[in-house]
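During the no-cost extension, the postdoctoral fellow (Dr. R.K.) reprocessed legacy sequence entries with the updated structure-token encoder. One reprocessed record is reproduced below for audit purposes.
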Amino acid sequence: MANCSGCLKENTDGFCPACETKLFERSKVPNQLEFNWDDIQDRIFGQPAGFSISGVQPKGFIGRAKNNLLTPNRNIESMYIIKPCLDTRRSLYFDSPANEHLTMNMAGQLFKISTAKCGLVKFANGEPAYLTRRFDRDKEGNALRQEDFVSVLNAIPGVNDHGLYKYNSFTYEDVGNRLNPADQISFIRVLLFNFLTGNGDFHLKNLSLLESSDGDMLLSPSYDLMNTKLHINDSQMALNLFREREGTKQNLPTTGYKYHIKDFLELGKRIGVRERILLTMVEEFRSAKLEMISFVDKSFLSDAGKLKYKEVVELHHNQLFNL
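Re-encoded structure tokens follow.
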């Protein structure tokens, strides 16, 4: 038997009952779809719904039919987003859905990071796809107010900057200073996790505030978490940590700076997180390497993908915590 297509619970075919509840409100939904990515592209009429790592990963919208099967949907207000594999020019492109599925589950289960509900499915032709339930919709499908940090910080594109403004307009210090105290703690946790798992694409559009039932704008569940280094030659961090940009004169994320845990502690202190909380968090991440490696082994990654993912975790863990 395989592992759960939602939470990776062992000895489970398809989705376990808990994941059926979280993703599909207790409905029995097969993890084998009855359509292919081309069917979704046809519904979009050639207009891509969105892109992920470095602008190369397409997204589509799907909905539920009356018989509970997932189906392509022209309506972009649909409750689900689906991502196919990266294009074949990318390294380990076939692993990209399993990569995001693993990383999102690791964040939620090992580090208690609030994440979008997700699963791994297969198209009719057998190709894998990443599925996530939208958190910016209520149960009736009504839109909730969501604002990414391009909007929050009023990041303005430069002339012909090819989207780089979402990387170089502001820093993580700028983001942290716009959060409430509880969200600042969560923010440092997510940054540490992204560094350890090799996510070099945690830019301003991948950070959002979401309106709560009380009308407060709070840090949204994390989304688009993946080890980008499996597929592209990516920088260690999408944004610089500090306003002085890690001591460089560059406006782009620096590749020469060697990040250490002291940098994340300094960032936490700058935005107002208590040192006691930071040190507890640091110890949690320091002691989690073996659990992370074990979690990778449960995933749907290929053997080559698992090996590369574990190499990144080992490398970044050693860099972060070794003096």
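Strands lie at 60-64, 70-72, 80-83, 118-122, 128-133, 146-148, 208-211, 217-219. The domain at 146-321 is CATH 1.10.1070 (Phosphatidylinositol 3-kinase Catalytic Subunit; Chain A, Domain 5). The remaining legacy entries will be reprocessed before the final report is submitted.
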